[in-house]
Amino acid sequence: MQNTNLKFSEEVSVALAAKKPIVALESTIISHGLPRPQNKEVALEVEAIVRAQGATPATIAILEGEVHIGLEPNVLDRIANDLDVVKASVRDLPIVKSKKLSAATTVAATSHLAHLAGIEVFATGGLGGVHRGHTYDESADLIALKDNPVIIVCAGVKSILDVAGTLERLETFSIPVVGYQTNQFPGFYLVDSGFKLDYQVETINEISKIWNSRKEFGINQTSLVVAQPVKKPMDLAKHDALLEGGLALAAKNGITGKAVTPFLLEYFHRESKGESLAVNIEIIKANSKLAAQIAVGLSN
Question: Are 123 and 291 in contact (CB under 8 A)?
Fold first, then answer.
């Protein structure tokens, strides 16, 4: 039964009723992650990639307090172009609704809303995690992955974070992580974050078997992280130099907390002359394709 507090696009409504494969997509990358007008172009291209694999895209966002699961053209245009669109995590959802704000959803909020909508597969770029040098500064993504049973396809965690700390927290929360055709944990811009994974999967069928077998053991309350490395990564030396410079500038400017990640991503984009942005776009395209293949595999 569809959640009556959610507004489903016509395309998603039809897919849900027919039990067709669906892939949830976040909207923060549209409103805050990519420059205009490229943001809308990429959003449409990603949705087309999902459809080409036989699944239905369900980009999630909030317009004037109403949660949209799947965006009609006018809603997507607002999310892509309205400068007043805020970024909403799980804790923000009641406030955004009551104040009738428009918001793009983070990984945490998207996974939460996807689960409420009955969608099992979600594609994103990189996960949030533990911030460097701040033991208790963690992304809400980790809590959402602990509490929402969705398969999330990503390129690991953002390489600007504390990768080791993030992997430890994923283990603590009993969130399983598998590498898709790799035993190295990806580092977003990088193929290898420097950390090995315990488990590697080679096929969509393996992922489906893992997902279904979790229910047999009664441990199906968490997400399953499927980590896929980027095909054309940044040069490691260049990446590390940019990270060092970005962290130093953030510290100099007194940038802390949740403001650090967007600051560093913008620094990477500016100083790499667009290279990091191109990698980011390829990541979300590849992950959306794999997520759609997984969704189709589950439906079969």
Answer: yes
Q: Give yes or no for a cis peptide into 37 (omega within 30° of 0).
A: yes
Instruction: Count the neighbouring beta carbons within 10 Å of the beta carbon of residue 163.
Output: 23
Q: Residue 162 corresponds to which tokens in the numbers above?
A: 């504390």
The active-site residue out of 7, 47, 120, 158 is: 158
**11 counts as catalytic:** no
**pLDDT tens-digit series, residues 2-46:** 565 899 999 999 999 999 999 999 999 999 989 899 999 999 999
Q: Note if 146 is an active site residue.
A: no
CA distance 49 to 288: 7
The highest-confidence range among 41-55, 120-134, 158-172, by mean pLDDT, is: 41-55
Instruction: Report pTM.
Output: 0.93
Say if CB 54 and CB 296 are below 8 A apart: yes
For 100, phi then psi, to 5°, come to: 55, 45
Active-site annotation holder among 11, 26, 47, 138? 26
CA distance 298 to 113: 20
